[in-house]
Design brief:
Distance between the termini: 25 Å
CATH class: Mainly Beta
Structural class: mainly beta
Number of helices: 1
Radius of gyration: 14 Å
CATH topology: Thrombin, subunit H
Strand content: over 45%
């Protein structure tokens, strides 16, 4: 599933809420940033930054996410900061694009 999700899949969902599952706990994460990195015709690289609740720290790991438009998928996220609004996590995508048939 994740191979079909691109930067363009996430960009329209900026500021949307995603449901995230941590064991038996379910809570909301807000997508607050979608950044393109050095992509080319042959590779795709982008990051997603999510803001989660300030009272629930998540260690870097793979978690299940769910959004009505994208369905259920797993993301490896890394904590990157905290402020009065919550805890922040980043997911990095860096992968080859499918070879186009000529």
């Amino acid at each position: 599933m994740l191979e079909h999700l691109t930067r363009d899949s996430f960009a329209p969902l900026l500021n949307a809420q995603f449901r995230m599952v941590q064991g038996a706990n379910v809570f909301s994460m807000d997508l607050i940033e979608v950044s393109e990195l050095r992509s080319s015709r042959h590779n795709e690289a982008f990051t997603l930054v999510f803001r989660g609740p300030s009272d629930r720290f998540l260690s870097q790991s793979t978690y299940q996410f769910d959004h009505p438009s994208l369905g259920v998928f797993e993301l490896f996220i890394v904590p990157i900061g905290q402020d009065k609004h919550g805890l922040y996590y980043e997911a990095l995508f860096n992968r080859l694009r499918p070879v186009e048939q000529e």
